[in-house]
Amino acid sequence: MLSSWSANRFTGAFSLSTPIALAPMALATGGALSAACARAGALGLVGGGYGDLDWTRREYEAAVTLLEGDDHALSRLGCGFITWKLAEDRNALDWLLDQPQKPAAVMLSFGDPGPFARDLRRQSIPLICQIQTIAQLPQALDAGAAVIVAQGTEAGGHGMNDLDGRSTFTLVPEIADALARRAPQVLLLAAGGIADGRGLAAALMLGADGALIGSRLWASTESLAAEKAKQVALLATGDDTARSGIFDILRGKNWPECFDFRAIRNGLHRQWEGRVAALRADPGRAVQDYLEGVRQEDYDRSHITVGQGIGLIHELLPAAQVIVQIDEDARALLPDRHRD
Ligand SMILES: Cc1cc2nc3c(=O)[nH]c(=O)nc-3n(C[C@H](O)[C@H](O)[C@H](O)COP(=O)(O)O)c2cc1C
Question: I want to staple 105 with a disulfide (CB 3.0 to 4.6 A). Which of 34, 78, 233, 317 is the partner?
């Protein structure tokens, strides 16, 4: 059991025992992983992703069932969605907002949170907005975000494209300064490349109130990622990932151009690097190749979604163990004013 971080605003606001939020990773952060993180004292955000109603319902309900009888852990369960997709179909969000077990927070990333913010506010559900640039901050604040997640390009999965993206190391303190001036009550989490206690301690030293962690918890026993993908990923270093739109084209995901995707830079990815326009114009054969890779679990052809932090991850562990280790290692590194 983790002792308290009484001086920390994020743990205080969400009754956490560690300043960690589990990233709502589409198709990977299911009920078991979110429940394990919530039970371990972190904020557990189910990966509502593209807003598939059946998936969201099944996994959110699974988490609630797993946490039955543990009111503290239940109060740390939330959900996240990809905002531009919700704008096309908001059924999963509407379903969630009707649940007797109200989410502790809803996280919206990649798009304008404004149209959904009023419904969250009406139910006093805190809004978490993940952003990638300083320019996106006013939109998130106007929507009433209680928490900003500053996501650097080290992150696994989607984020700002290479041209406009920022690294975590400069984005976090710049957003911390902007919040101190404009909205000091709003909390800040760092995301992108945080996979151990050093990363959490660094995030806090850079001015964040906590960290949102994806890849390190993707590589946990509870994550819904395929077992073989986890094993392959453990062999990678931080050099072995890349950002591009290639896998989105291969999967037929119609992402807005400002966003792209970090995954392991496998053979199929290398084949299309520098030829993305040609792939987009005529994806047919490459899509067949990719789908065959998915069918055969051939990860040189199908994607594995992790960030640069994968080079810091060497074993699959239960999520609670990951969280305790990160928490303890960060505490050992931090000056007293952060951890009392
Ligand atoms: C497998 C995977 C899936 C992701 N899916 C989503 C998603 O559906 N929605 C979202 O807001 N962020 C998603 N992300 C990004 C995370 O929210 C977060 O920014 C990122 O994982 C942080 O960087 P890290 O992976 O280095 O910890 C995903 C990340 C990964 C690794």
Answer: 78
pLDDT in tens, 91-143: 999 999 999 999 999 999 999 999 999 999 999 999 999 999 999 999 999 99
Distance from residue 149's CA to the centre of ligand 1 (Å) = 11
Rounded to whole angstroms, the Cα distance separating 152 from 168 reads: 4
CA 165 – CA 322 distance, rounded (Å): 28
Distance from Cα 156 to the centre of ligand 1, integer Å: 5
- Position 261 scores a pLDDT of 97
Atom of ligand 1 nearest to the CA of 50: 8
Residue nearest to atom 31 of ligand 1 (CA): 156
Domain locations along the chain: 9-225+312-339, 234-295
**Could you give the percent of the chain with pLDDT greater than 70?**
99
| C-alpha to C-alpha distance for 101 and 84, rounded to whole angstroms | 25
**Model confidence at 6, in pLDDT bands (50, 70, 90)?**
confident
Residue 235 exposed, middle or buried by CB count within 10 Å (0-12, 13-18, 19+): exposed
Atom of ligand 1 nearest to the CA of 49: 8
pTM metric for this prediction: 0.98
Given pLDDT bands bounded at 50, 70 and 90, which one contains residue 339?
low
Grouping H, G, I as helix, E, B as strand and the rest as coil, residue 136 is helix
- Does ligand 1 come within 6 angstroms of the Cβ of 330? no
Residue 81 CA, ligand 1 centroid: distance in Å? 11
For residue 29, the CA-to-ligand 1 centroid distance in Å is 10
* C-beta atoms surrounding 169 within 10 Å: 15
Question: Considering the domain 9-225+312-339, what is its CATH architecture?
Answer: Alpha-Beta Barrel (3.20)
Whether the per-residue pLDDT at 219 is higher than 50: the answer is yes
Question: Does any ligand 1 atom lie closer than 6 A to the CB of residue 218?
Answer: yes
Instruction: Please give the residue that has the higher pLDDT: either 4 or 330.
Output: 330
Residue 214 Cα to ligand 1 middle (Å): 5
Q: What angle do CA 315, 268, 230 make, to 5 degrees?
A: 15
Helix (H, G, I), strand (E, B) or coil at 242: strand
Question: 3-state class of 1 per DSSP?
Answer: coil
